[in-house]
Amino acid sequence: MTELRDAPPPPSPAASPHPKLCFERDGHDWPNRPTSRFVTAGGLGWHVQEAGRGPVLLLLHGTGSATHSWRDLLPLLADHYTVVAPDLPGHGFTQTPPSGRLSLDGMAEDLAALLQTLGRAPAIVAGHSAGAAVLARLCLDDRIAPLALVGLNAAMLPIGGLAGRLMTPLARMLASSDRVPRLFARFAASDRFVEKMITDTGSVPDPAGITYYGRLTRNPGHVAAAVRMMANWRLPPLARELPNLKPRLVLVCGGNDKTIAPKDAGRVHAMVPGSTVITLPGLGHLAHEENPHETAAILVRIGREVGVLPRIHAVPSGMRQVEDAPPLAAE
User: Fold this and answer.
1) Could you count the other beta carbons within 10 Å of the beta carbon of residue 14?
2) 56-60 vs 124-128, strand pairing mode
3) pLDDT tens for each residue of 184-242
4) N or C: which end of the chain has fewer CB within 10 A?
5) pLDDT in the model for residue 10
6) 3-state class of 37 per DSSP?
7) What phi and psi, each to the nearest 5 degrees, are found at residue 46?
8) Element (H or E) spanning 85, and its range?
9) How much is the pLDDT for 193?
10) Could you give the 3-state DSSP secondary structure of residue 99?
């Protein structure tokens, strides 16, 4: 049974022993709070932000993040699209499912249930980091049929080499301990720790980013979900199927991304016919947070090129005129 409601969701299932963020307390100043609503779908209580009018654009954040990641981008896009941005399962203010559901397939299935409940069929989808992989999974499984999929520093390929061989076993070990999320939350009590965490991605921290990422990483429930998600993540099957993607794939990567190597976008581009790579020089893994106007301009331009937005459209104050930019072409 599914339902729409405005009240915050009930506590997460007993399978998650860690305290979750409380929207009434921890979300009192949450970015774009007036657009927030709470939805029950697929057995989970979801936090979703919806704003704007027009064709539906679905935004999915990455591992360890939440809807605050779209704090400056969402209002820009809402002038063109109906923007739908949920907190992923276990993240932010969305309930935590049983551990086994925090996987690529599980999240895709749960997102499909959410979209069905909301009655939203996205025309364009955009995902940051692991969020792009979830969107690709949804498309490959024919659960959604957007005209374009935009990967923002997309994490669609397995980590190679020694790091890849060590990462999953390490994540599984960390996920098996209830102490790890609490210990991490204690380390994150310092703004310097959070600032370094952001800097290590290649992005330049801003005060708002430090505030909201700090709030998330100081919450054991949020940290536990992110660690379990990493422990359950399996990208080889997705990578094998990427050439079968139906929507147009546009890969936007920060030239200074230290989390997902920019060369990975080139590897995916070589795998997916008709795909496009756009590099944003000097920006890191959180490029869409560092330069939301440039990111919004790209998403508006893509909407025009695939025909879901009119070719001539008013551009919000502060956003550069995208009509002057050349069309996106496959490289």
Assistant:
1) 7
2) parallel
3) 667 667 888 899 999 999 999 999 999 999 999 999 889 989 988 988 999 999 999 99
4) N
5) 52
6) strand
7) -105, 145
8) strand 82-86
9) 87
10) helix
Across 256-284, average pLDDT: 96
In the three-class reduction of DSSP (H, G, I as helix; E, B as strand; rest coil), residue 304 is classed as: helix
Contact call for residues 46 and 9 (beta carbons, < 8 A): yes
- Nearest by Cα to 147 from 299, 331, 315, 327: 299
Look-up: residue for tokens 């969020």?
Answer: 131
Q: What are the CB-based long-range contacts (under 8 Å, 24+) for 69-72?
A: 69/128, 69/286, 69/288, 69/289, 70/31, 70/32, 70/288, 71/31, 71/32, 71/208, 71/212, 71/289, 72/289, 72/292
Question: Which position has the token pair 């991490």?
Answer: 184
Residue 300 CA to residue 250 CA, distance in Å, equals: 13
Burial of 197 (0-12, 13-18, 19+ CB in 10 A): middle
Report CA-CA distances (Å) from 177 to 114, 173, 228, 302: 30, 7, 10, 44
Which secondary-structure segment (H or E) carries 267?
helix 262-271
Q: Read out DSSP for 38-59?
A: EEEETTEEEEEEEE-SSSEEEE
